[in-house]
Amino acid sequence: MRSIDTARNNKWRFRQADGTILERWTGTVVVHVAGKRTGDEVVFGKPGDLVLLGSRTLEGLNFRVEPVTKQLVDAGPAPAAVAA
Question: Residue 58 sits in which domain range?
């Protein structure tokens, strides 16, 4: 993240599947994927950390993962509330 000049904003604690706790810095970035972009909070990982594109980012881009092909596809119309 230093290579793209992203500031560290907050320090978060994360629980791994095995129960161990990690502490990592987070920062705000603009994510560009397949011609779309959204703002999101990212984690400053360390060597050996798992790399994931989270559901919050996918929702912000209005993508979903197609389960058979494992490809990103448009999620269709976004839900909206209607005033009564």
Answer: 2-74
Number of other CB atoms surrounding residue 62 within 10 Å: 13
Give me the numbers of helices (H) and strands (E) for the chain, helices first please: 1, 5
Q: Tell me, what's the pLDDT at 18?
A: 85
**Residue type at 48 in one-letter notation:** G
For the beta carbon of residue 2, count every other beta carbon within 10 angstroms.
Answer: 7
Rg (CA), the chain: 16
Q: Is residue 21 included in any domain, yes or no?
A: yes
Q: How far is CA 39 from CA 16, 61, 66, in A?
A: 25, 9, 23
Blockwise average pLDDT, block size 10, the chain, 84 residues: 76 88 92 89 86 81 93 90 82
46: tokens are 């360390």
SS3 state of residue 83: coil
Single pTM value for the model:
0.62
